[in-house]
């Protein structure tokens, strides 16, 4: 079961994963430069984002691990489902990178933190795991969402569902858990030490 899932991942998902990851990096750079030229838009974008994620902050102004983890799982599931429905996950990728580019400029403008330092301290420690999980969700969703249009169908629907569940439980869930732990407990400590 796990061997077949690993082969499915290597044969079909890995290329999409790498393409999605590359697109996220490229689009983040594009949005960073856009927002660097228009910092007022970055501030507006992040203030809007903060308003929608206010439930993740506790009364003592800390990130709630449980709320963050559940939010990340919900987002990952939506990315996966958007790919199933249609390649809507491409749109989600644009929205995600737009927010990431805006947050780097926001840190520069509002907190006088150079973008490279904000990326290194505030994003990468948890972002490596979270973006890997997000890219995996988007990739699986895109593969399955476009699978039905192919002439050579080597998998039945049940197999695809089984592979998706195994990848989600064995990779996405642990990556999101690790990302939430780091973002809630380690990233704030790193920020206090280095920013």
From TrEMBL:
InterPro entries: SpoIIM-like. The keyword Acyltransferase does not apply. This is Stage II sporulation protein M. It holds the Pfam family SpoIIM. The lineage of its organism: Bacteria, Bacillati, Bacillota, Clostridia, Lachnospirales. The chain crosses the membrane at residues 12-35, 78-106, 126-149, 161-186. It comes from Anaerotignum lactatifermentans. PANTHER family: SLR1478 PROTEIN. Keywords: Membrane, Transmembrane, Transmembrane helix. It comes from the Bacteria.
